[in-house]
Amino acid sequence: MKVEILDDDIVAGILEYNGLEYIFCYDSEFLANKDTTAISVTMPKRKEPYISKKLHPFFSSLLSEGNLRDIQSKLLKLDKDDDFAFLVHTAKYDTIGSVRVGKVL
Q: Has this prediction a pTM greater than 0.85?
């Protein structure tokens, strides 16, 4: 599954989960735009993808924890251990900062 990652409503890149690893790749137009900055200091703008066995810490920071995660899991019928599903369903609208999830591709 793949989702757009938006920064101030501009497509910053694509985040993919293939069942084994998470892959984030910046969009080429976002990279070329001198007015855009990296989505995180831990993920500077670069052509090479960021690949990880676990959800990248920056994206994990957009997720709920504890009781709120339990409530969201029940209401949205999500596996509370499925970070990617949580990100897709909960980080579309109300996130801290300018980065959010866009459409599912």
A: yes
